[in-house]
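cache lookup: miss for this entity combination. No prior model stored, computing from scratch. Input as submitted by user K.M.:
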Amino acid sequence: MSDISAETVRHLAGLARIDLTDSEIEHLTGELRQIVDVVASVSEVATPDVPATSHPIPLENVFRADVVGDVLTTEQALASAPEHDGSRFKVSAILGEEQ
Amino acid sequence: MSDLTRLTAADLAAALASGDTTSVEVTQAHLDRIAAVDGDVHAFLHVNPQVSLDAAKASDARRKAGTPAGALDGVPIAIKDVLVTTDMPSTSGSKILEGWMSPYDATPVTKIREAGLVPLGKTNMDEFAMGSSTEHSAYGPTRNPWDLDRIPGGSGGGSAAAVAAFEAPLALGSDTGGSIRQPAHITGTVGVKPTYGGVSRYGAIALASSLDQIGPVARTVLDTALLHDVIAGHDPHDSTSLKQEWPSMADAVRKANVTGLRIGVMTELDGDGFQPGVLARFHESLELLKAEGAEIVPVSLPSLAYAVAAYYLILPAEASSNLAKFDSVRFGLRVNPVGGGTVEQVMSATREAGFGDEVKRRIILGTYALSAGYYDAYYGSAQRVRTLVQRDFTAAFANVDVLASPTAPTTAWKLGEQLDDPLAMWRGDIATIPANLAGIPGISLPAGLADEDGLPVGIQFLAPAREDARLYNVGGALEALLASKWGGSILDKAPALTGGTR
């Protein structure tokens, strides 16, 4: 059995930057326990002698010359921003008062 | 002409080339069909008739000048909303991107435009392609044209339903764990997941980058091949795109011949957990191929028992990382908490409001699988299982040319039936997921209707990486055998939609 508690889910939601409600946390805690019990079966066959595969087709790094490529203009990049000042994205305070 | 919406893309291309019809006529016929039936089906999230008709007029002008852009110039196509487009909104089925306009086109979209195809609109999908039923779309589910109370499959239920309901002859899809193939199975249509890297993913809103692939959706194997030929090829914008020349998939269909072809039947996907009608149609199809000269061989891939578990660790891990870009800063929704807050509080409030339940579930699972102390046990082990699955495929393909299985364990279920049991829905991906883990190509085409419910059943073929043409060979051959047995297409048996029931 997994050791997932509501506190675990609250912590994960913080890491994932999702402001889950208490009822969502309660619901997800139960679901996550069940899911993790099932997916944990991978460890039955994943012995240390088997190498990990991150990518389905072996590929090498792709390099290109260090020149400006096909990029967006500032105007294009800002066009769908929730808030901007014409040259930069605008956000609220980076630090809270206690920080 | 007879009803233009019933014609295949290949037939439409011929009618356009001979001057029997125009792209404006063909496009208008499909727009009319969408207007008539899409209130019931809800395959489309966005349609802009003026944009489509302008593209159709430009196509007719090229035809008139004797300079068509390609064989499919003027043929309409639907685009899954996971692909970004400059002239239509792109949402990936999520509220967090509602109304968002991309400043660039996805490469597969650029390629279809360059080939003269006419975009009809953007199709519905599970939010960020997470789901097997299209019920996780933030904009409401798509309904199965065979039975409007049932799911059309997912995540690409919109693209599959659009071609099944004759709203479009062609569509683009994306397949991360079966999102092209399973909806094809569910709706009696054809879908192909190409080799990983065979089609550019530039401009495809990423779900799980080591699994995602863009591919064609249509009603026939030849149409799927014709679209595959348009979208395949290397793209410098996508660093995982394969640098190689691809043979014509359409030629593979036209020259289809299964004499001497060795077809491996995956024993792990032929029995327990599969609906009787699904298995019956599968075995009938194999018999037809055998009578035509193919050799049918049972093959065991023992690691498939662990494929779903590995997939549901790898996918959420990669998705939790890919979806970090929805941060309320550069694009999409921004929700300010009551009384304001720091940028991180704004981000958390935005993601709470903008993501649906399935997306949150997978992000939290992925964050857990990647967190310190659990990484080796979960994500690390899943990556080792991935190696085992790849080894099983390599061993199997040493003895057979293609592998076969039913595309999914069951036919279409009722809307809402599995929504409260995510694990049940995930288990339904058992037959499609292994190809994504191994990066190999797969096709699903109709094998008939299940006796118990009269709903479509698909058969899946898999081939080694870079051997996509083998799928079109065996798929084309089987489709022809079934068509002569049935005296037509499976979709001839679908109920006629007249619209206006919803």
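stored under new cache key. Chain A touches chain B through 57 residues (CB under 8 Å).
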